[in-house]
Structure formats: structure tokens, C-alpha cells
Amino acid sequence: MTAPRAALHRALALGLAATAAARLGPAALFPTAPRWDGFFYHQHAARLAAGLGYADLGTSRPTAFYPVGYPFALSLPLRLGLSPFAAVVALNLLASLASTAAVVLVAARAPDPRAPARAALAAALYPGLALWSCAAMGETLTAALLVVALALATHPAQRPRHALLAGAALGLAALVRPPSLLALAAVAAAAPVGRRARALALAALAAGAVLAPWAARNALSLDAPALVSTNGGSNALIGTLDDARGGYLRPVTPDDCRHLHGEVARDRCLRDAALARVAAAPLRWAALGVEKLVVTFAWEHDPVSYLRTPHTPLRSDRAALAATAVCTLAWWSLLALAWRRRRAGDPTTRAVAVTVAATAATHFAFLGADRYHLVLAPALMLLATRPAPAAAEAR
Questions:
Q1: In angstroms, rounded to a whole number, what is the distance separating the alpha carbons of residues 215 and 171?
Q2: Buried b or exposed e, range 143-178, using 16+ CB within 10 angstroms
Q3: Whole-number pLDDT of residue 311
Q4: Which of 84, 95, 297, 311 is the one with CA 20 to 30 A from 277?
Q5: Non-local CB neighbours of 132 within 8 Å, separated by 6+ positions
Q6: What pairs with residue 55 in β-bridges?
Q7: What is the DSSP string of 106-117?
Q8: DSSP assignment letter at 252
């Protein structure tokens, strides 16, 4: 590490303390019950905590519709007796602390001794992440696992164990959010040209080892094998609906799929229906893809919308609009700084760029929502908080 050890330790202490304050403060202001998909995540987590297994909430049959990663992680603090909201805050706080530590440790590789402190404050105080830490949703945990994987993949030593550990982190991230597996390409991009195939193979091997037990469970418990979850077909179908306007809209199940009882069979049927709609109107689907990217990357409203209830300080339109403006300005600023501080030929720049591209491709194909870009915020901070290229070259 280039930064002095004392500066690194101070930055880590600052970042972890500021992260805790920036998460616990909103938790005190916004004690919100699990909402949106978080309602179902919490129900599954409660069943897991009670030893009832991962089963459909209505039929009690084994399920893999929602990815198991976040409900399982949430079940751990629930087993300790925490309330639903306290369990969410505890889990998301631990994930946020891991994100901050990873961002600071990468910043410490820069020659500027001030870089770790800048990174610590950025990771701790980014408003959207602070607010979203109250949400029973998987983005905070996914973001932490992604940035830890990138920190490992871009380690200056570039030893095989770094690729293996990065792949394992991405395997865990895939259990929370399956498209995270696409970031395996970022591990390869971070490696020197002659070592990329080896890095990719090692990372894929580790990710596969992490996913194998869950995939085996699905093969034994469901009607057909499924690597992680069985909601890809419905999400793909939503992504073809004009009325969804790039976001979520509950799809009408096609007649061919309505009477299928197997979860995997139904998912495949919905996927085939989506592909048929794409083939029938490819240009319209491409235009919808652009709408999905706009919905995902143009603003940041979901952290405010999730917490806006009649019992929180965001209940008024003016307060919600102001908070959304602050979150959106922070997101645009992060994008601008990351762009300005990219460096040609730099492993971190390559790895972050591939991760952003993989996320964009995912939401071009499926559906969009601005909370989905939150998984990228800590990764973008790896670029945004380091010295500008000119300053680094001067040193």
C-alpha cells in the first residue's frame, strides 16, 4: 500500500464511524416495515429463521423464485431475536461497513495520503446508500460483495488467491442478485493480458463452488435444475411490455404457461414468451431497452420512495422532492468524478467499466429501476475518490 499506514488507519476509523452514524441516523428517522420485494424477503427470512426451509409462501412447496441470498442473510439476525427492522438495519450496516473498508483499502494504494480519507467520507456519506440501508432489499449487500470482489481482483500483487477470493465473493453476490455473475468478466479485465484466462477460470471455479450447493438443492427439490432463481423469465417478459415503460409491471401470464405447476417449467415458458415478443418486434424491444437504461441510471428516487410513509419526515411532496434532488445530484457527481478519473490501461478502470457495462446490459435486457444502480455506487467510488490522472502523473 502506498499511503502511510497511520493515514490508512485514521481513514478506516473515520470511514467506519461515519458509515455507522450515516446508517443508524436514518434508521432512527425512518423505522419502515419491509416493503416491496422486501416484504417477501422478510417472510422467507422469518421462515428460514424458524427452520421451515425456503418454500413458497402460499403452498409451502420448495421454491427458488426469489434469490435465496438476502433472505438467508436476513435470517441470521432474526435468529438472534432482532425485530424485522432491526435485523434489516444490522445486516445492511455490516454490508455498508464492508463496502467502506474495501473502498478505503483500494484508495490507500494511491500515492496521495489524503485519498483514503476522501474515500472513507464518500463511501460513508453517499446519501442514497445511507437511506437504502433501511430497506429490506438486496442492493446494499450486493454492492458490498461486488466492491470487495473488485478490490481483490485489482490487488497489485495479482496472485491466484485474489482471483479465487474475488470469484467466491461474486458467487455470494449471485445468490443475492444473479446478474452479479457477469462481473466475473471484470476479474479477467483487471488481470494483465497474459493472465486473463487464468484469472477468469479461477474466479469462475470459486463462484461455481459457492453456487453448487444451492444449485444441487434446486435440482433435487424443483421440477428441473435452476442455478439460483426462477424469476428470470417473468422479468424478461416484463421487459417486453410497452405499458411498463422500462420499469416493473405485473405481467399477464400467457395461456400456455398458466397451467404449468413446475416452477422451472413456468419460468422457461415465460422466457420463451418473452423471446417470441422480442423476435416479433425487435426494434420496439430495443427502444424499450433504452427506456430501461434511463429508468435505471438517470435519477435516484427509490431510496426516498421506499421510506416515504405518512409516519416519516419524507411524507410531504416538498421533502421527498428535495431528498430525491440530493440523491440524484450525488449520483450524477459520482458518475462525473469516476469518468474524469478513469485512466487508460489501468486495471481498476477496466474492472469498474466492465462491471458497469454488465449492469447496463442486464437492465437493457430485463427491466429497470433506479435502485438497481446502487449496486455500482461503491465500485464507482474506487475511481471517483482517487487523485485525478494529472495529479497522479505529477507525483
A1: 12
A2: bbbbbbbbbbbbbeeeeeebbbbbbbbbbbbbbbbb
A3: 82
A4: 297
A5: 92, 139, 140, 302, 303, 306, 371, 374
A6: 62
A7: HHTTSS-TTHHH
A8: P
Quick one: residue 126, left, alpha or beta (phi over 0 = left, psi -120 to 50 = alpha)?
Answer: beta
Residue 263 is placed in which grid cell?
A: 416452477
Measured from the Cβ of residue 7, the count of other Cβ atoms closer than 10 Å reads: 17
Rounded to whole angstroms, the Cα distance separating 42 from 92 reads 14
pLDDT at 194: 92
CA atoms of 95 and 74, how far apart (whole Å)? 12
Phi first, then psi, for residue 241 (nearest 5°) are -90, 120
Q: Can you give the pLDDT at residue 393?
A: 52
Q: Is 345 left (phi over 0), alpha (psi -120 to 50) or beta?
A: left
Could you report the per-residue pLDDT of 124-160, keeping only the tens digit for each?
Answer: 999 999 999 999 999 999 999 999 999 999 999 989 9
**Residues lower than pLDDT 70 in the chain:** 1-3, 390-395
Q: Choose among 207, 204, 279, 186: nearest CA to 236.
A: 279
Do residues 305 and 272 touch, judged by C-beta distance below 8 A?
A: no
State the alpha helices, DSSP H only, in the chain: 5-29, 37-49, 69-79, 84-107, 115-125, 127-132, 139-153, 160-176, 184-190, 196-221, 232-238, 255-258, 263-280, 282-297, 302-307, 317-340, 347-365, 377-384, 389-394
Which residue, 33, 69, 39, is CA-closest to 54? Answer: 69
pLDDT of residue 320: 95
* pLDDT number for residue 85: 96
- What does the alpha-carbon distance between residue 120 and residue 19 come to, in Å, rounded to a whole number? 8
User: What does pTM read for this prediction?
Assistant: 0.96
